[in-house]
Amino acid sequence: MSTPDPTNTPTNEALWLLSPRGLFEVRPTPMPTPGTGEVVIRVRAIAVNPVDAITGPLRRLVSPWVRFPTVLGSDVAGEVVAVGPDVTDLQRGDRVTAFAAGQEKARNRASEGGFQRYVTVLERVTTRLPADVAFERAAVLPLALATAAAGLYETDQLGLPLPTVGASRADGVVLVWGASTSVGMNAVQLARASGYTVVATAGRANHDLVRSLGAETVVDYRDADVDRQVVAALGGRRLVGTVAIGKGSLGHALRIARPVPGTKRIASAYPDPATAVRSRIERIRGMHVTAIWGGTPVVSPVGPAVFRDFLPAALADGRFRPAPEPTVVGRGLEALPTALQTLRDGVSATKIVVGMDA
């Protein structure tokens, strides 16, 4: 196991969430030590996600296992400074992006929350970066990538073949409803890397962007006849699954999937209490509706298959793009509350990022 250089003793700070009400404070925190299969990253960029911006009773509902005070944050990029036992693919000095899993029930450790200067992450959900991918761009990936991968590849979701660089063409079409979201952009690219044709929906202003990521056809989700247009775009081809992202997406996905040939599997990235009820009802009707949990790849084989086996080479040869583009709103841990408010105020086809000083 390697440890941070003792001749240049670093100190750590974290942005602590003191209570579910949303009270934050930057405080000193212990330097993490990597355990088996873990590395410590010096964080250079942090992206924020909607789950980070939740406050009040909903915070307890989303993650009732979390103890306060806690450290939020899933999306980080930076440099490896320490390597734990049984780490095989990473070494000190590697530039990486990683899923910081501190809020996951299986981990639930403040030392693994991304809102700090030095964070412990699992090698299995860490990706080595090419030299030409900036930390601020790379930080947009982890949670959105993991969520898209969970929906597409977990066996209880769509259960599709895993992505490969230079995948052979597969028979069938994947529908991505909400393709200009962070999860949607990753779902489009992953589905293409599994060999499938992609039909997508997005606002008209983002059609060119979604096509550039690999979608064959993009339909405006605001159109009154959007369902008819999507069915027409499928053209009688087999629908191998749908990733449904955003409020109202599940109803559209069901109306589209019922009459067309295919697996009748829908992975919903807008889970709410109604999704579980709806899934049971739809099973009786022959549909397979599931709610995606983005942290599942942290513990499943999908995590290393995507983060370690696929993504490094796909980024290096340009077949996979960090998406969406980052909007950097400040630097340092103190800028994170502003970043979260910017996210709450609403953004489109971008991800809010905070840089960290060298």
Extract low-pLDDT stretches: none
Please report which band the strand proportion falls in: under 5%, 5-15%, 15-25%, 25-35%, 35-45% or over 45%. Answer: 15-25%
Q: From N to C, what is the helix and strand string?
A: EEEHEEEEHHEHEHEHEHEHEHEHE
Q: Any idea what the CATH architecture of the largest domain is?
A: Alpha-Beta Complex
Identify the CATH class of the largest domain.
Alpha Beta
| Helix-strand makeup class | alpha/beta
In DSSP terms (H or I, runs of 4 or more residues), the helix count works out at: 10
The helix content is 25-40%
Total count of strands: 15
Q: What's the Cα radius of gyration?
A: 20 Å
Mean pLDDT metric? 95
Main β-sheet: number of strands, strand sense, barrel status? Answer: 7 strands, mixed
User: Could you say how many structural domains there are in total?
Assistant: 2
| N-end to C-end Cα span | 24 Å
Sum up the overall morphology in one term: globular
